[in-house]
Specification:
Blueprint lengths: L3 H22 L6 H28 L6 H14 L3 H26 L3 H6 L3 E4 L6 E2 L8 E4 L9 E5 L2 E4 L10 E3 L4 E2 L4 E2 L4 E5 L7 H15 L6 H27 L4 H14 L3 H20 L2 E3 L2 H7 L4 E5 H5 E12 L5 H12 L5 H12 L7 E7 L3 E6 L6 E5 L1 H5 L6 H12 L3 E6 L4 E11 L2 H11 L3 E5 L4 H11 L3 E3 L4 H15 L2 E4 L6 H6 L2 E5 L5 H6 L2 E3 L7 H34 L5 H20 L9
Parallel strand pairs: 11-18, 11-20, 18-19, 20-21, 21-22
Antiparallel strand pairs: 1-2, 1-3, 3-9, 4-7, 4-9, 5-6, 5-8, 10-22, 12-17, 13-14, 14-15, 15-16, 16-17
Helix pairs in contact: 1-4, 2-3, 2-4, 3-4, 4-9, 7-8, 8-21, 8-22, 9-21, 9-22, 10-21, 12-13, 21-22
Amino acid sequence: MWNDSKFLWLISAAILVGILEFLSLAGIRLPHPIEVPFFLIFILVIGYQTLWHGLSALVTLNFKSINALMLIAVAGAWYLGKYEEAAVVIVLYTLAEKLEDIGIEKSQSAIGSLLEKMPKFVLLKNHELPIPIEQVKVGDIVVVKPGEMIAVDGKVTSGVSFVDESSITGEAIPQEKFVDDSVYAGTLNKQGYLEIEVVKTSENTTFAKIKELTFQATQVKAPTQKFIEKFSQYYTPSIIILAFLWIFVPSVLLGYPLDPWLARGLSLIVIACPCALVISTPISIYSALGNASKQGALIKGGKYLEAIGQIKAIALDKTRTLTYGRPIVSDVIPYGTSSKEHLLECAAGIEIFSEHPLAQSIVEAAKKENLTLHPVENFRSIMGKGAQADCLVCSDKHHCLGKLPFILEEHVVPQTVIQEVEALLEQGKTAVIIATHREVEGVIALTDEIRPESRHLIDGLKKLGIRPILLTGDHYSPAKMVAKQLGIQEVKAELLPEDKASIIQQLVKEYQTVAMVGDGVNDAPALALSNVGITIGGLGSDTAIEAASIVILNDRLDVIPFLIKLGRKTLRTIRFNVGLAISIKFIFIVLALIGWSNLALAIFADVGVTLIVILISLRLLNWQERQ
């Protein structure tokens, strides 16, 4: 694996040889006794693997290998005495290949970071010392303390707690867990003590499936065969055979002098040297990658840049991708004599003693409004239900706060309130009711906050003719509500990681080229199975960041439409460069065959077209979409 110092050294080499190439065009070159050994050593040090593989390909007549083209390109440039050009070609090609290699290596180690965080030992009930996770059997009872990660798939046999399942389901709010509820390996026990009966061994857990799917997808996503490699199957052998026949037939079969026809054959090979063809793709991609980095996006290789320019559909995770993944107060609905401010002050005064995420959101909402929280006493939290306390401000001191079933245990709730709660639930919101002995004082609704740039993202995708699809592990109601607000027509909710991966495979069959945007460990298989996996650097998990092929470093989702346009522009540039190079090569090959070629024309056909292609490609470095 190439480390940072070697990669920087390769970039420095590219800058150096580029400067020498431009100086040579201005007529400034190294002294010949220095120039030849210098560039020979330079080329061999940088590209010895490419040249050796190219030689092996030619010996075995494997003209599918792009290394064979590179060997011909370098040899042709060297024959012309263009040592700088030979060095430029080999350096830029090697740099482009290493950029893709780095992306592949990172993808292959996608799950490694989370594996380091997973518990290696677990404590069984009635055991004093932990045992290795590999020794745990189905039916064992595992003890999980507050703040510990759950290491097995199992069923709660004792205890009550909140479990953060975002790594598996993507659900932002920790889930209440009671006896007989299921829990997953890789999730975090937030609060209570749990005893869990193991239902799957470590190699069969949901988390293990995530790991397996991610590695399988990484293998499936091998580098695609570029157009130039396919073209080389016909181009390289055709030129070699044509040059041989152009020398052999007149001089051997027809008895003409050898030297003129040998010169024509060599001129043909020199003119046909595919420097411009070879350089057209990597220099375009490298320039576009630099442009993307300036926009705050890290693209892990040229194949992903090409792929994003071809996508027809994009799947998007909800929690912490389109939304912030944290509940906020969306509605404060008072009843009777209560005002919104009074209701929020009383509720926050009670919830300040609770650690539940919804409670913290209510307290934050009151503080944001600069409200004075009511002092309370006799606070009591009922796990999984709500809270009770005596308010020292309200005339009716006793208050119950929680979801509808909890309030109905002790209080009479009017039908109008029940209908209001049901309407809020249909909107994908969570409803918290506040009641005293005398009446229901009000309802506070909470919802996941949508990121402001999400709307711009969806609008931008639609303008580009790309179909957005919402995939989430969250419940259908909140997913449908988010989709409605953003204008997404297709919603698939309550998905486990393997469900997301399966849907991505179906979408690829339907649309051919599909992108996936996600942030969590649960998204890693889908990110890897898609043609282009995109995650958000600041919010994404380590696994998602490494499994993704594009990382948005500045957390701006609305840069994705720009990247799609940049990918499309890059593809158009590559096609234009290849078409230009092939056309001009064809013209000068014909001129060489009829004897109208000379060294000056050969240099123009080779060096001139190469420079034109480079200049056109470099425009991508500063390309901006038209407003």
